[in-house]
Amino acid sequence: MPNRRYMGKERGEHEFIYVDLLPNVKRPRQFNVNILYIVLIAVAASWFLVYMPLSSRQETLDTVLEQNNDMTNQLLLLNEEVVGYRIEQNRIDFMSQLDRIEALQTDYLDVFIPVRDIVLNYNGEITQLRYDRISQQLQLVVILNTEFTFQNLNLELLEQDFITSSEHTTPNQQAGTVRYTATYTIGVDIDAE
Amino acid sequence: MLSKRFNDLLFIVILLVAIGGVFLMRMLLLGNVDDRIESTRSDNTALETRINDITRLVDQHGQETLPSMAEMHRYVPSEYDRDQLLFYIMAQLEFSGISDVTDYNRNVSITENPAFPEGTEFRALSSELEAYRIQVQFNDTNTDTLHTFLQQMDEADQYFILQSIQYQLPDEETVTFTINYVTFYKP
Predict the structure, then answer these.
(1) Who among B47, B76, B165 is closest to A108 (CB)?
(2) What residue ranges do the domains of chain A occupy?
């Protein structure tokens, strides 16, 4: 159908009806420049927001993977070396446990006999003993003839290499005798040479 | 024909969708690569630790000849046999002169998994190995037999760790000696 449009009366002289006699055909859609903007913006955003950081991270990933590969190869070589030397972890662990147990062993008599000899030198007597490996302590109840010799005995005990500490309780006179009793608590260094 | 206002609105919407798509792509791609980097770095750290451990192991034990397991089990046996252990301790008491026929009133008891104070080497070892406490008690009038027994136990191949000794020497009376040993087994 032809288009009819009323053109109006601009000067008041002419009045006509515009009749478009051209057939009403579908014309191609006009190119929308906005699409171009969107594509350009999307490409630019992809470049700055995706491609550039991705490329930098890809480089990092390559470096890290390369290191991983090198280390995996190094580990393989080391494992071959371990097999070559016949190094067995369970034997090493067991050996280490044996060393630790051996370190716990103490020669009690090497500690007790020198202490007993010192006490005997003071004409003393050990009437009670308690040795504890865990606390590394030797507890002795000692009887001496005079009160002041307890301090001398203590000083002599402290001079020993294997004794780290020594202290005694206040001497008490035994009932019905002229002898005194005190308890010594002696710290023993079991590793002393 | 679309109105200009609608056209502008559509432009903004499509633009926002496009930018949103770019951000989504960025998030997915970079997130994936970041995860791989992180995971590989973590693997590398573990590998580095392992390499250092093995290198140290090779440096320490490369030239060393360790005794065989069988030889090491002489000191810490693999199989615990209560009767065998009791028999062994009884035998050491006999060798030390603490006979069953005389009036020593000897007694041996074994405690499995004994408790040790926190933070001690005894405690640490008992968590790695099987620990047993052997309590030996006997009566005598002097300390000579005790010392002989201690020496006898020191000569054993198996490790018997002297944990404690306790006694009291009243005048002219028999004394009860209490000795605690700890021994270990590695199953």
Answers:
(1) B165
(2) 31-74, 107-188
